[in-house]
Write a structure and sequence with these properties.
Blueprint: E1 5-11, E2 21-27, E3 37-39, E4 44-46, E5 55-61, E6 68-73, E7 78-84, E8 91-100, E9 111-116, E10 119-124, E11 130-137, E12 142-148, E13 151-158, E14 165-170
Parallel strand pairs: 1-7, 8-14
Antiparallel strand pairs: 1-4, 2-3, 2-5, 5-6, 8-11, 9-10, 9-12, 12-13
């Protein structure tokens, strides 16, 4: 029997390191080995008395994240396990209304780019000044840039709520 050390790589889908993850280890039959532990990215899981060639399953769980498991066959003292716990994010279709800051008229044809971590969405306002950004995170600060030939560019952080339209006033270029 050997006492392997397993270095954990624990992140979310945006490649951000996670901590406070509950780690459990089981054998192939699902029997838990040792106690569950709270660990984070870069931590080392130390196990003892495992038979050479044993296959174990390391599972990570965290609130508001999907769990993930990694299978390791014990062949020596040093191992590595990578877990990606996807953060649960509610995606919505965000509604925007672009208006001229002076006349309150709709602004058609403006380009909108919204960025959140690795997610990027683009839209253009229609003839009524409306635009829809598809599948953006709800109630989360998103970086939004709005450009139009006749108006000053806007770069701002916005948060969107399902079923609500966010109105933005654009200042005409002088």
């Amino acid at each position: 029997a050997i006492n392997p050390s397993i270095t954990l790589d624990i992140s979310n889908q945006f490649e951000e390191a996670l901590s406070n993850v509950t780690i459990t280890v089981t054998d192939k039959q699902g029997t838990q080995i040792g106690n569950a532990a709270t660990m984070g990215d870069g931590d080392v899981l130390r196990l003892s008395g495992l038979p050479l060639g044993a296959t174990i399953v390391i599972t990570g769980e965290k609130e508001e994240h999907e769990s993930d498991s990694y299978e390791v066959t014990i062949q020596d003292e040093e191992h590595y396990a990578s877990l990606v716990l996807n953060q649960q994010i509610d995606l919505i279709d965000a509604q925007l209304l672009l208006l001229d800051a002076e006349s309150n008229d709709p602004v058609p044809g403006a380009q909108i780019i919204a960025t959140y971590r690795t997610i990027s969405r683009e839209a253009a306002s229609n003839s009524s000044g409306f635009a829809t950004l598809s599948q953006v995170p709800e109630s989360t600060d998103i970086s939004v840039q709005i450009t139009s030939d006749a108006y000053e560019t806007i770069s701002t952080g916005l948060s969107f709520t399902r079923g609500e339209t966010t109105t933005i006033a654009l200042s005409p270029k002088s």
